[in-house]
Amino acid sequence: MQSLITLEDLHIIVPLILQLFGIILVTLIDPYIKRNSRIFILVNVFLIISLVFQNSLDYNVKIPFVRTLCSIYGYSVRPLIILIFCYILDYEKNYTPFWILIGINTVISMTSLFSDICFYIGSDNHFYRGPLGYSSHICSAIMIAYMIYLTLSAKTVKRRFQVIIPVFNTAMIIFAVLLDTFIVKKDSSVTFLSVAMIISCPFYYIWLHLQFVYKHEKALMAEQRIRIMMSQIQPHFLYNTLSSIQALCRIDPEQAFNVTEKFGTYLRQNIDTLDKPQLIPFKNELEHTQVYCEIEMIRFPTVSVKYDTRDTDFLVPALTVQPLIENAIRHGVRIREKGLVTVYTRKIEGYHEIVIHDNGKGFDVNQKHSPDEKHIGISNVRERIEKMCGGTLTIDSIIGEGTTVTILIPVKNDRKKK
Predict the structure, then answer these.
(1) How many other C-beta atoms can be found within 10 angstroms of the C-beta atom of residue 397?
(2) Residues 205, 65: one domain?
(3) Same domain, 268 and 184
(4) Are residues 122 and 269 in the same domain?
(5) Within-domain flag for 304
(6) Of 214, 233, 266, which residue is a domain's last?
(7) In this structure, are 205 and 317 located in the same domain?
(8) pTM assigned to the model
(9) Residue pLDDT, tens place only, 193-221
């Protein structure tokens, strides 16, 4: 009985397979690659390995029906490999049209079981292309074009010369397809396309690794900046609260004692939360905001803070609401005979909305705070909301009438609770 894979084939296939298994190993141990990307890389490597064996089987088997099945598999898998490369680049995009395209290509390829419209294996056991024999090529070309687009538009490309690697890989694959289709006239156990895909794998992995490292570096820098901002805002919050208690000691010592006890209890319960840059439940943020506001309302009897919190089941950066209410009280409503700050929360389509409205003196939103200004700037809160949970902070202020601060936290951010 004839062996399906000859010794000559093994000399070619074994080094290629070993190279792919090397990619599997480094992908599994690389700490920078995210779980989704790791899965897609491994799936693609196994598909390429299967394509190598399919080519060898197709070349060595002399049964037309088996060769037809092998060719159907090869024609169906090649565009799928390219699509998975697109998933590796950006798995959050919608690839439904491409899956439909792959399905159509697979159906066209399967017509070879009963028709020669796509391809057929002749009586001489050679491959012959039919009128729709280039469906796989067209499907692959469309996906290669989209893969190039994803590569060039990737936000993680720190230096433009880095695109040389994926562009070179793409050009090598296209050149290999041209060689297999138009130049090489005889069947081969290993096609140029298989070799090109295998050679491109380590180069593509290196490129992806660079992108993942760059993302990791950006995340570390963002986290460090958030820690710096928290180190600025935490002492400010504690200092202002203690200053308020100190002032209260002069006008109402007994009340100052009660507030100090409450504030001490709050610190024991929440100091660990304040010391972490991660998101915290909005209920926790509201709790320490209420403690601070109670102190301020005792100190300034003309000021009142009201709450209408219909939605509280979401996450926010620590010390998000309190600094905004502090600004509203200290730089807005204290001038009013009846100063009022209102906190609204509700869930709207796709977002958790926090609205902080005051009837204070208002200000020019286009005017920047001076460097020596004592209160914590809104820009600090805005940047943490944007970086930590992808939210937004907008301000609408009318001089003489008051200010409204609106925070929108995406609902999709709720998955971080799990």
Answers:
(1) 18
(2) yes
(3) no
(4) no
(5) yes
(6) 214
(7) no
(8) 0.55
(9) 767 777 777 777 777 777 777 766 666 66
**pLDDT per position as a tens digit, 214-249:** 766 666 665 665 565 555 555 666 777 787 788 778
Q: Per the domain annotation, does 160 fall within a domain?
A: yes
Count of domains forming the chain: 2
Tell whether 242 is covered by a domain.
Answer: no
Query: Does 237 reside within a domain?
Result: no
Q: What is the 3-state secondary structure (H, E, C) of the chain?
A: CCCCCCHHHHHHHHHHHHHHHHHHHHHHHCCCCCHHHHHHHHHHHHHHHHHHHHHHHHHHCCCHHHHHHHHHHHHHHHHHHHHHHHHHHCCCCCCHHHHHHHHHHHHHHHHHHCCCCCEEECCCCCEEECCCCCHHHHHHHHHHHHHHHHHHCCCCCCCHHHHHHHHHHHHHHHHHHHHHHHHCCCCCCCCHHHHHHHHHHHHHHHHHHHHHHHHHHHHHHHHHHHHHHHHHHHHHHHHHHHHHHHHHHHHCHHHHHHHHHHHHHHHHHHHHHHCCCCEEEHHHHHHHHHHHHHHHHHHCCCEEEEEEECCCCCEEECCCHHHHHHHHHHHCHHHCCCEEEEEEEEEECCEEEEEEEECCCCCCCCCCCCCCCCCCCHHHHHHHHHHHHCCEEEEEEECCCEEEEEEEEEHHHHHHHC
Are residue 51 and residue 165 in the same domain, yes or no? Answer: yes
Range of the domain at 65: 7-214
Q: Which two tokens stand for residue 11?
A: 């000399």
Task: Choose one of 164, 197, 214: the last residue of a domain.
Answer: 214
